[in-house]
Amino acid sequence: MIPIRSLAPTARLSAILAAPALALGVLSAQAGPGPAKPGAEIYRQKCVSCHGAKGEGSKAYRKPLTGTRSVGELARFIQQSMPPGAARRLSAADARSVAAHIHAAFYSPLAQARSRPARVELSRLTVRQYRNTLTDLIGSFRPPAPLDDRRGLHGTYFKTGRLRGGEKVLERIDPEIRFDFGTTGPLKEQDDPYQFAMRWEGALLAPDTGEYEFVVRTDQAARLWINDLRRPVVDAYVKSGSDNVYRGTLYLLGGRAYPLRLEFGKGVQGVDDLSKLKKKPPQPASISLEWRRPKLAEEVIPQRCLMPVMTPEVYVCSTPFPPDDRSAGYERASSVSREWDSAATEAALDAAAYVAERLPELSGAREDAADRADRVRAFCAQFVERAFRRPVPGSVARLYVDTQFQDAKDLETAVRRVVMLALKSPRFLYREAGLARDDPYAVASRLSYALWDSLPDAELLKAAATGALAAPDTAREHARRMTADPRARSKLRDFFLQWLKVDHFPDLAKDQKRYPGFDDHAATDLRTSLEILLDEIIAGEKADFRDLLLADRIHLNGRLAKLYGVNLPESAGFQPVALDPAERAGVLTHPYVLASFAYLDASSPIHRGVLVARSLLGRTLLPPPVAVAPAPASLHPGLTTRQGVALQTRPPACMSCHDLINPLGFTLERFDAIGRLRQADNGKPVDSSGSYKSRSGRVVRFSGVRDLARFLAQSDESHGAFVEKLFQYLIKQPVQAYGPETLGHLQRAFAQGQYSIRQQTVETAVAAALPPLSARTARGVAE
Q1: d(CA 68, CA 53)
Q2: Cα Rg, the chain, nearest whole Å
Q3: H-helix segments, 244-366
Q4: Which helix (H) or strand (E) holds 248?
Q5: CATH (domain of 61)
Q6: Which of 381, 400, 429 is the last residue of a domain?
Q7: In 3-state terms, the chain is what percent helix, strand and coil (to 5)?
Q8: Per the structure, how many domains does the chain have?
Q9: Residue closest to 555 by CA, chosen among 597, 594, 582, 586
Q10: Is there a single domain that holds both residue 169 and residue 291?
Q11: Quick one: pLDDT band at residue 683, thresholds 50, 70, 90?
Q12: Which domain holds residue 554?
C-alpha cells in the first residue's frame, strides 16, 4: 500500500475520498464546540458542492451516496475521516447529525426505495435460462428421464470377444470403469483369456455446464457413446499403432443425465487367427473411463456421477453466447446486444435442424404413416404452445404454424420454419412481456424459472389452466415438488459455489517447494470434496443453513488424506472425516475455500476477510483507492502474515475498509495457503483473534474461526444477507422491486422455517411468483 501522506495534496484528497463506501465532501470550516447543528444544515453548507442536493454526486465526486452502513457507522467514518486533517474534523454530535440526515434522505436502501423505487426490469432469458429452456422444450416430446438412487453402470460380461451373439456370463453394477484384467480375464471362471467382451450402459450425471473431455484408456478395442447413441464420441474399435489413450469432447449442461454406452472387447481383431494367437501367452487387458470436467483435472468418472439406467437423449445448445451482465452481483439480462441476437439466431438454426432430423421420433409420426402431415402439423402447434409457455390464440397459431406450412417444399422445411420463428419470437425470449402480475401462466413461469431456470412442466401448466396457482399454499406445494428435481438441486449447488466465490479462480496453483503434493489432481479432489459437502447439506433432512457454517466434517479420499495428515488407505474413496474438529467451521474452513482465498505460498487474511464481509455479512466494499501489490515477505522477514497485513493497511484511506476486513480475515490465520491447520507462522505462534463491529455498533470479539462461525450462524445480519443473495440469484431481480415488505417477510420465513435452505428456496420462489404481499394474504407464514 502506498502511504497516503506520500502523495501530492490533490491525489491525497482523491485517495481519501475514493476509499470508503461513503465519501463526504471537504468540510471547509473547523467544527467548534457547542450544540450539534441540524444534519440537513451541515450537509447543505459543507457537502452539497461535492455530493449534490440528493446525494447524486457531482463532477468533483461522481459516485452517488448509497450503501449499507448504519447511521452509527456513517457517523464514525465522518468523524474519523472527514474532512482530511485531524484539526478540522466534525464533532461527534455533528457527525452523527449529518450521518442521520444522509442515511434517511438518500443513503439507506429504504431511502433509495422512496426516492428511486426499484422495479422489475423487462428481461430476456439469460444464457443459462436459454440453454435449459431449449433442452426442456425439445425434451418434453421425449419420455421423462427415469430417476434412480443407485449409482454406477450396468455391466454385461460376455464369454467371447463379440458382443452380438456372444454368451452372457455375468450382469452386475460396476461403481466405476477402472479395470486391469491382467492375463487371466475379468472372471476366475473365464475359460478363454484370449477373448472376452463387456458392455456398460446407463447414464452420465454432469455436475457442471461446459466442455467435457472424455478419455478411454485401453490396450484393446473400445467404443464410447454419450448422449447420441448413433455416433460414438470415442471410437477405438479398430486399433492401429500403439495408441492406448483415446479422447473426445462434448458440451454438456450441468444437472442433466445423459445416456451412456461403453463397449470393450479383447480378441475382436484377428479372430480368424485366434488359433495362432493361442500359441503365445495371453496378453494383458485393461480399460478405464475418465473425464476432464470444465476447469478441473483429469480423473476416473466417479460412481456418484454414473447411474445404471439408460435415459433419453438430451438436446444441448452449444452455441457460444456473450456472457450476461453480473455487475449487480447476479446475472441480469435487461439488454440485447448485436452479438447476443446473432447467437440466438445461430442457436435457433441449430435447434431447427436437430428437430427436423429427429422428426419421426419427436412428433411420433413415422415417415410412411398415412396421417403424417396432420400429426406433424399438430406437433408444430404443440411446440409453439410449449415454447410460449401458455395456450396461444388462433391468430397466433395461424401465424406461427399454418402460414409456415404454406408453400413449404416438404414437411421438414415447414418444421424448420416453425421452430425458427418460435425461438426468435419475443414470446419465447422474454418471459413476462405485457403480462399482468396475476396472470396464472406468468405465475407458473416465475416458479419454474426461479427453481429450474427453465419452462414450466405439464403439472405446473395444468395448475395454471385451472387457476390453482393463485392460492399461495398451492403455489408453495408445487414449489416443494420442484425443489426435489435434479435441476433445482443443481441450481442451488451453483448458487453456493457463487456465494463462496470459488469459481473466480481459474486454478489453485501453489508453491511446490512449500506444498509438495498439492497439484491439479489435489485441487480437483478438493473441489469434489466441497461439492459433496454442499450436496449433502442441501439434500439433508433439515438442509440447515447453520450446518454450512458449523459442520466439522470434511470429505477426503486417499490422496487428500495423505496431504492433510489423515490415516486412510491410498485407494480410499471420499468419506466424511472429522478433520481438526475443534478448529474447522463448515465451508469457511474447507480447504478448497481457504486455498482459493490465499496466495501461491501464503495465506491471505485480506481475501478471506473480504469473502466473509461481502458474501456472509452482505457488506458493501469498494475497490482500493490505488493499485496495491502485496508487499513481498523479504521486506519484513521477521513479520507474520498478520503483522505484515496490519502494517500494509494502516494508512487511514485503507483502514476505512480494512478495519472491517482485517479482523474478520485474521480469524482464519490458523490455516495455511492450502487450508492445513498450523500452529506457527514464520516461526511465531499464530494469532487468530479477531472482531466485528456490527451495524448497531456492538463489537463482537472472536478467539478464532469457530467463534466467528457461531456468530454468523446466529446473526440476523448474516441471515439477512443470505436471504437477499439467494433471492437475487434465483429471481435475477432486486428484492426491493417486489414490495418494501418482501425482504422482511422472507427473513421472518427463514427463521420460522428453522433456517432450512430448501424451505427458503420455496418461499423465495413463491414470494416472487405471486403478486406483492401488500395485495394478498400469504397463508402459512406470518407476515
Answers
A1: 20
A2: 31
A3: 274-277, 338-357, 359-363
A4: strand 245-252
A5: 1.10.760.10
A6: 429
A7: 45, 15, 40
A8: 5
A9: 586
A10: yes
A11: very high
A12: 501-714
Give me 358's grid cell.
429427429
Q: What is the pLDDT of residues 246-257, one digit of tens each?
A: 999 999 999 999
Band (pLDDT 50/70/90 cuts) for residue 96 is confident
Quickly state the pLDDT bin for 657 (edges 50, 70, 90).
confident
Q: Does position 110 have pLDDT exceeding 70, yes or no? A: yes
Q: Do 207 and 353 sit in the same domain of this protein?
A: no
Which run of H or of E encompasses 217? strand 210-218
- Supply the pLDDT for residue 348: 98
84 and 221 inside one domain = no
The terminus-to-terminus CA distance of the chain in angstroms comes to 48
Contacts of residue 9, defined as CB under 8 A and 6 or more positions apart, other chains included, come to: none
User: Is position 105 within any domain?
Assistant: yes
Give yes or no for a contact between 642 and 684, defined as CB atoms under 8 angstroms apart: no
Report the C-alpha gap between 356 and 362 in whole angstroms. Answer: 9
Does residue 563 sit in the same domain as residue 651? Answer: yes
Q: For residue range 436-469, what is the model confidence (pLDDT) as tens digits? A: 778 999 999 999 999 999 999 999 999 999 999 9
* 289 SS3 class: strand
Q: Does 653 reside within a domain?
A: yes
Regarding whether 417 and 510 lie in a shared domain, the answer is no
Q: What is the pLDDT of residues 135-144, one digit of tens each?
A: 999 999 999 9
Question: Residue 319: inside a domain, yes or no?
Answer: no
Among the three residues 307, 342, 373, which one is the final residue of a domain in this structure?
A: 307
Is residue 318 in some structural domain?
no
Pinpoint the alpha helices (H) of 604-679.
Answer: 605-611, 641-648, 652-666
CA distance 273 to 283: 15
The pLDDT, as a whole number, for residue 208 is 94
Is residue 98 located within the same domain as residue 214? no
**Residues 166 and 294 occupy one common structural domain:** yes
* Contact present, 602 and 673 (Cβ < 8 Å): yes
